[in-house]
Amino acid sequence: MKHLDLFSGAGGFTLGLKQAGFSIKKTYFSEIDKHAIANYKQNFKDAEYIGSVSNVRGRDLPKIDIITFGSPCQDFSLAGKRKGMEGDRSSLILEAIRLIEECRPRFFIWENVKGTFSSNNREDFAAILQAFTNIGGYRLEWQLLNTKRFLPQNRERIYLVGYTGEKRGGKIFPIPESNRSINELQRQQANICTLTTRYGSGSGGSYIAEREFDAQEVIGAMRGRNPLNSSDRTTGSKTVQRLEINKNNVTNTLTSVQKDNLVVTDRIRRLTPIECERLQGFPDNWTRSGNYDGEIKITPESQRYKLMGNAVTVNVVEAIGKQLKINKL
What we know:
The chain has two domains: 2-178 and 309-326, Rossmann fold (3-Layer(aba) Sandwich), CATH 3.40.50.150; 182-284, no CATH class. The protein is built from eight helices and 15 strands. It has helices at 12-19, 34-43, 93-103, 123-135, 182-192, 273-279, 301-309, 314-326, and strands at 2-6, 26-30, 48-49, 66-69, 107-113, 139-146, 156-163, 195-198, 208-212, 218-225, 240-246, 262-264, 268-270, 289-292, 295-298. α3 links the parallel β4 (66-69) and β5 (107-113).
C-alpha cells in the first residue's frame, strides 16, 4: 500500500498503522516544521518528503491507498482563541480534503481536538462533514477517543475514518474496550513515569535516567487561579499560580507547555522526553535525533516536547488500523 501522511509530525499515524499490520510499501509525507521533517526522515528512512501540503498535487503522486492527517488544531482548541475554520491554521484541513478528492484513497483517517465538535456553535464540524461528503463515495464514521483507554494520559481526540465500499460488512467504530486487567494497567503506568533524573550536559542537555523513585509519584500542573475563588474563569481576574494535583492516575494532555505536567514527589520536575514518548506510544528516544539535510543531529529538547505534544497517539491509531483490517478495508 502507498501512504500519504499530511501534517506528519513525529509519524504517529505511520507507526500505528505498521503496528496494526499494514504493509506500507511507500510513504510520502508533508510537513513544514524542520525538526519534525528531520525526525521523520530519521525514523522512516524510505519515506519521501514532498513539501508543504499547499503545494502537493495528486497528479504528481502515484496511486495512493491511505491518507492520514491530524490537521492543525489551534483554532478549534478549547484553550485557543476559537477562530475555527476561519483561522489560518485550521483552514488547512481544506487542503487535505482537496487531496482526498484528487487521490481517491481506499480510506483516510483524520484526527483533531474535541473542541472541533463545538467550534462556532458546531457549524465548523458540520461544514467539515459536508466537505467530506461532497467528495462522494466514502462512508464516514467517527468517535471521540481518549488515550487513557490505552495509556495513562488524558487526551481526548476526534478520530474520523472515511472508506470506500459501502456494501462491506462491519464498522470501524466504536473501538472495543480494552480487556487489560487493572494490574496490567498499573504496571504500565509505573513503567512510563517512574524515572528520576539529573540535569547534565548529556546529549543536547537531555534528561538522563538514573534510578526509580522510592516515593509515590503524582502528576500536577501549575494553574493560574483567582486566589479568592479558584473556580472563577472571568477574563481579567487577578490570578496566582498554584500547584494542582491530578488525582486520576493519568497525566494531563501532553502539550509543549512545561507547567501542564509536573511530576511531584519530594520535589517537582517536568516529565522527561522519554516519558512523553511513552505516554504517546512511541519507542524510547524516538525524538532524540533527526536527519537534518543528511546530517544526523541531536534534536533540541524543547522541540522533543513539541513533537510529542503535537503527535497522535500511536496506540489509538493502531486500534483503528486493526478495525480496518478486521473489516477488510
